[in-house]
Write a structure and sequence with these properties.
The protein is mainly α. Among the domains are: 103 residues, no CATH class; 131 residues. Helix content is 76%, strand content 1%. The protein is built from 20 helices and 2 strands. The protein has a two-stranded antiparallel ribbon. Strand 1 and strand 2 form a beta hairpin. Helix 4 runs antiparallel to helix 5 and helix 10 packs antiparallel against helix 11.
Length: 456
């Protein structure tokens, strides 16, 4: 009798849970339909009901909750109610992180919170800045929202304009935000690279691969726009006319301060303020105290300016070896490559352009430089006129790739690619040679690559 009673209770318990789960699913379905069409008056009560009774049931509660709360905040005119909704939005995001941590990136959540505070002017400028700094502190590798990255720097710029933070603070934030953007650019370029190469080899992408490539290229275009906007905000504040007096004023006092010298050296170098005597003084002082990638790079720049190419390459190679930051390594390798390119040492130049790309896959200009070198070498490669002209297909592929990984140069890259295609064999030439789909190798010259003749 006792066991029968226990089983009866268990049956009632499971039946109750099943009924409760069914109720949650029904409410969630109705909520989802209303939320999809922005029917806030119908969706919001159901959302509140789901939070109260079914908060663990599905991540969709929080995904749709985010969207309807954003919409309600935008439409709300009452200031007090708007602030309440902002807090509900924050609570929604934090509950999503708590309930579904394995399906949620911390950076996305904290960036959403920072953005809602930014858009609705919640708190002081300093408090809004802290909200973005929290994203960097907690999960900077996944801080990917282009709009949020711009807002982060915009707040720093506003603080500087208001006289609440000095210019060095703004420079530091600029460096930080540009590094965050370039980290995401590199991630997307790495994602896109094998898929672009697959397309260039005339292989068909799967629907999933096509979707990944499309998203990567959209993000790359957006990062290019945001980087341009950030640079516009900084504007003349970082020009040599402002930097040189700023650092000259403090040089004697700071010439043994490694951190100050490092910052001054990097800023002057980045803005090509290299002709002023201050640049030499800062670079030399830094290299004596702490030989580093930055100081070696600066001395390489000075050697270049003096026309001593051999010495410049020694310093630049030293700088590349000392550099630990991939973005910095990439810039140094690119400069070395340009030196070899200018000398006509194309094989050496390509080696360094590729090293630059290994460290920064979104450096499209390096692909463009390789394309230019290939085009210049067309007459030195191949065993026939057709094969020599086929080099231009390879050049066109590299030029097209340049624009895809770096949308900021897409116009120049596509123009170059079309120009190279115009110099490559045309349909009549391919037909006459009966070469469609064949592979041509350029092993008889420094290029050492191959290209597949397009099918007619």
């Amino acid at each position: 009798m006792k066991f029968k009673f226990v089983f009866t209770l268990l049956g009632v318990f499971f039946a109750f849970n099943m009924a409760s789960a069914q109720d949650c699913n029904v409410t969630l379905s109705l909520f989802n339909e209303s939320a999809k069409v922005n029917n806030f008056s119908d969706a919001y009560p159901k959302y509140k009901q789901l939070l109260e009774n079914c908060s663990d049931s599905h991540i969709l509660i929080y995904q749709r909750g985010e969207k309807i709360l954003e919409g309600m905040i935008d439409e709300e005119e009452n200031v007090e109610r708007k602030q309440e909704l902002v807090q509900e939005f924050i609570d929604n995001q934090m509950m999503r992180l708590e309930k579904f941590p394995n399906k949620t990136k911390k950076a996305d959540i904290y960036a959403d919170i920072a953005m809602i505070q930014y858009k609705n002017e919640v708190g002081s400028l300093e408090e809004r800045l802290e909200a973005f700094e929290k994203v960097v502190e907690i999960d900077k590798d996944n801080f990917a929202s282009p709009v949020a990255l711009y807002a982060y720097f915009r707040i720093a710029n506003d603080l500087n304009d208001a006289g609440e933070r000095d210019i060095q603070f703004l420079f530091n934030k600029y460096d930080e935000v540009i590094e965050l953007i370039e980290t995401q650019e590199n991630d997307k370029a790495i994602e896109a690279k094998p898929l672009i190469e697959k397309q260039e080899a005339q292989e068909e992408l799967t629907s999933r691969e096509a979707r990944i490539l499309k998203n990567s290229e959209i993000y790359l275009r957006n990062y290019t726009k945001i980087k341009g906007s950030v640079n516009s905000l900084l504007g003349s504040k970082a020009d040599c006319d402002n930097l040189i007096p700023l650092y000259n004023k403090d040089f004697e006092e700071k010439k043994t301060d490694v951190n100050w010298l490092r910052n001054a050296n990097e800023r002057l170098s980045a803005k090509d303020c290299t002709e002023d005597p201050l640049f030499f003084k800062v670079s030399e002082a830094l290299h004596q105290i702490e030989p580093s990638a930055n100081s070696a790079y600066s001395l390489g720049q000075l050697a270049e300016a003096e026309g001593n190419r051999k010495k410049a390459l020694e310093y630049l190679n030293e700088a590349a070896e000392l550099a630990t930051d991939k973005g910095r390594k990439s810039r140094i390798y690119y400069r070395i490559a340009n030196n070899y390119n200018a000398q006509g040492s194309y094989s050496q130049a390509r080696t360094y352009y590729r090293r630059a790309l290994d460290n920064k896959p979104s450096l499209g200009v390096a692909y463009l430089k390789i394309a230019e070198m290939y085009a210049k070498s067309a007459n030195d490669c191949g065993n026939s006129v057709f094969e020599k002209r086929a080099v231009y297909w390879l050049a066109a592929d590299y030029a097209a790739r340049a624009g895809r990984v770096d949308p900021s140069i897409s116009s120049n890259a596509s123009g170059a690619a079309e120009s190279y295609k115009g110099r490559a064999p045309q349909k009549s030439d391919i037909f006459q040679e009966d070469a469609a789909g064949t592979k041509i190798s350029f092993s008889n010259c420094w290029i050492g690559e191959s290209v597949v003749v397009p099918n007619l």
